[in-house]
Structures are given as C-alpha cells and as structure tokens.
Specification:
65% helix, three-stranded antiparallel β-sheet, mainly alpha, elongated, 9 helices
C-alpha cells in the first residue's frame, strides 16, 4: 500500500507525466517486485518438483508391483506344471531286487539291458514291482533307521536314489530351483514355496534334496556355481516347509552336514 501511495504522489492520478518519469517508475517497480516474484517462483517450482517426485515414486512402485505380480503368475504356472509332470513320473512302475553286487532299481518298461536278479530258494528272481512313489517311501524309511551297518547290500541300497528311474528328475529339479530363484518379491516367493511344497509329498522333496546335493558334489568347476544355486534353493525350500522334522534324519549324512554348515536346519 505504501508503494502504491508513492506511485500516486509521484505520477498523479492521470497519465500526464513524461515517458521518462513512467520509465523510471516502471524500473523501480520492477526492481522492487522481482525478488518477491522470484522467491514465489522458486517455492512453486519446489512444490511442483516435490509433487512430481512423489507421483513418480508411486508410479514406479505400482509398476514394480504389477511386474512382480505378472512374473509370479508366469513362474507359478510353470513350476506347477513341472510338479504335475513329477506326479505322473512317480506313478511309473519300477522293479527293485537283489543282484549279484547288491540292490538294483530299474524301470519296468525300460529296464537296463544287463539287469539280472538273483533267484530265491524256489528259483524265482528276487524282485518286487512297485510305483516309484512307493519306492521313495521305502527308501527313506530304510535310510532313517540309523546307524546303518556298512556292508555291500546296505551301501547299494543307499545308492538306489541315483538309479535309472530317478534320472529324469534331474532337469526338473534344476528348472524348479531356477524358477523359484527368479521370484524376486519375498512375499510372492513365500507363497510360491508354500503352495509348491504342498503339491508333492515329503519323500519327493527329500529325493530332490539328495539329487541336488549329488549334482553339486559332482559338478565341474564350470557348473559349480549353478549347481550350488540349485542345491541352496531346493534344500532351503524343503527345510523351511518340512514340518515333519522326524524325516530330516532320513537324508544322507553328507547332506545333513552340508545343511548344518549352511544353517538351513
């Protein structure tokens, strides 16, 4: 108001002053108001920047969540399909029997060509047909009864988990582990582990742990990193989800030592 009064006194109520006077007055007015306008502009720019930054952060978060959801959906469908394939494989018929060097496990429909089972007292081959799923329960029931006396037959029994019928699970174990690894969201990964574990029985997951450890132990230097990743994912998932801890001891001593060393138990 004081500045407006100065203009009225200096210029009068009518535009009768010379152009120089108007020019000088405009210069003064500009000099006085410019700092205020600049300050206001800075504040406006700051609030606009802050608002845009918040909106960008919210947009980024929304896009990340959308991406995580889409990735989870794709990965879930993929691993569930593999789990269904595993279920089918577990229903295949296998033959377990005694050979000249110990126990033998082979597929009924595609037996190893040189498989020979020892005859019993009646001259019949000592062999039993069963579903692969039933064999796994039989196998881990045996390995749980520790200490296991060391002899040729018990040693051959322990090796049956790496027989011809289980070879087809190797790629499935690798694929499941790598898919689970790619689930970046912790929440989605927890959901995936819980639902995936429930689709297969505990003996299947224990077989997966034994297979993944065997792959890690026998991997070449070039394969070691991937093999370790596979073992960590499969063993970690199994240990986190296995509620019947009674069966943990059925895993081989080598595996148990490794799990303890990695603090997975």
């Amino acid at each position: 108001m004081e500045f407006a009064g100065y203009l009225v006194i200096f210029l009068g109520f009518s535009p009768s002053k010379s152009l120089d006077v108007w020019y000088q007055t405009a210069t003064i007015f500009t000099g006085v108001t410019t700092p205020f306008i600049s300050a206001i502009s800075v504040f406006l720019l700051y609030f606009v920047w802050k608002d845009n930054r918040r909106e960008l952060a919210e947009t980024k978060k929304a896009l990340t969540e959308q991406s995580d959801t889409q990735n989870f959906s794709v990965i879930k469908d993929a691993v569930f399909e593999i789990a269904d394939q595993v279920k089918v494989c577990l229903q295949k018929d296998v033959v377990m029997g005694m050979g000249s060097n110990g126990w033998i496990l082979t597929n009924v429909n595609s037996p190893v060509s040189d498989t020979r089972f020892l005859p019993d007292e009646q001259g019949k081959e000592q062999r039993d047909e069963m579903k692969l799923e039933s064999f796994l329960k039989l196998y881990f029931t045996f390995t749980h009864s520790k200490p296991i006396e060391k002899n040729r037959y018990n040693d051959s029994m322990k090796e049956l988990i790496f027989s011809n019928p289980t070879f087809e699970f190797i790629e499935k174990v690798k694929t499941i582990a790598l898919f689970v690894r790619e689930t970046k969201s912790i929440n989605y990964k927890n959901i995936l582990e819980i639902t995936l574990f429930a689709k297969l029985n505990i003996f299947t997951w224990m077989m997966f742990v034994e297979i993944s450890f065997h792959l890690f132990k026998t991997a070449t230097l070039a394969e070691k990193e991937t093999a370790e990743l596979v073992f960590e994912e499969i063993a970690g998932l199994t240990c986190r989800q296995l509620k019947e801890v009674y069966w943990i001891d059925a895993l081989s001593d080598e595996v148990l030592l490794e799990l303890n060393a990695r603090k997975l138990l």
